[in-house]
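tl;dr need the bound structure. longer version: we got a ligand (octanoyl-coenzyme A) that a collaborator sent over and nobodys looked at where it sits. i said id run it. heres the input, straight from their email, havent touched it
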Amino acid sequence: MDILKLTIMEDGVAVVQLNRPEAKNALNIELRQKLAKTFDELSSNNHVKAIVLTGGEKIFAAGADVNDFLTASTSQMYLRHTEAYWQSISNCPKPIIAAVNGYALGGGCELAMHADIIIANQTAKFGQPEVRLGLMPGAGGTQRLLRAIGKFKTMLLVLTGKMFNADEASQMGLVSEVIEGDATPHAIEIAKTIASFSAISVQQIKEVTNLGQDMSLDGALALERKALQILFDTKDQKEGAKAFLEKRTPNYQGE
Ligand code: CO8
C-alpha cells in the first residue's frame, strides 16, 4: 500500500493524501520523506497551480509516529534534520489547502498549519497534545499557533494538550471554513478556483502575505506595493484587464 497518494488533475490541482489509516496517518520518517519529495516535485511542476493536502475522509493525521520517539537520543533527533522535510512544504510557492476530516493532532495540527487555507468538517479535532507525552511541539505548534490565534489561546492549548473542535478552531481563527460532509471535495473546488487565476499573481499574493506576517507594517506594505508593481510587467495582468473590459473569461498563461 502506498502511504502517500498523489493525484494531479487536468485543471492544475494536485491532491496529496496521507494514507496510513491503520496508524491514524501518523507521520513516520518514511511518510515525511515522501511528503517532502512530493512537495519538492509539485513546487517545480509548472502544470500544478494549487495543492490540496488531505488525510482522507476519517482522519487528517494523529501527529508524529510515537514509535520513532521510543529510543531516540538528542543527537539522533538533531541528525534527522527533519526541518528540511517541513521546509519543502513551507517553501512551496503554490497555495496549499488542507482538508481536515477527523483528528489533526501534534505534528498533524502542525502539518495543517503549513497550509494557506484550512477547510475542516464537523468531525475535525485539533490539538497539540505533546505535553501529555513529556514533549513539546517541534514543528511550529507553539509559533504558528501563536501567530494564528494569539498568546492566550495558544498557551491554553499547548500547556493542557486539550483538543478543540472545528467550530472552536474557526472561532479562534485557525480554520478558514467549517463545512458539513467531506472537506476534501470542497477544498478541491477552492483549489480549482485559485488554479483558474494567473499563477504569477497567486504566488505573489501567497509570498507577500506570508512574509508580511513577521515584518513591520511599513515594510510589509512596501513589499506589497512592490509586488503589485511587478505584476504590471506580466502578460497575465494585461490579459486580466483586457478580458474584464471585453466581458470575457481571461486566458492566463502564467507569464
Ligand atoms: N503514533 C503512532 N501510532 C499511532 C499514533 C501516533 N501518533 N496515533 C495513533 N496511532 C496508532 C495506535 O497506536 C493504534 O495502533 P494499534 O492498532 O496497533 O494499537 C492505531 O493507531 C489506532 O489508534 P487508536 O486505537 O488510539 O484510535 P482511537 O480512535 O481510539 O484514537 C487518537 C485516535 C485520538 C488519534 C489516538 O490514537 C491518539 O491520541 N493518538 C496520539 C495523538 C498524539 O499524541 N499525537 C502527538 C504525537 S507527538 C508529536 O506529534 C510531536 C511532534 C513533533 C514534531 C513533528 C513531527 C511530525
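gonna send this back to them w/ a short note. The first strand starts at residue 4 and ends at 8.
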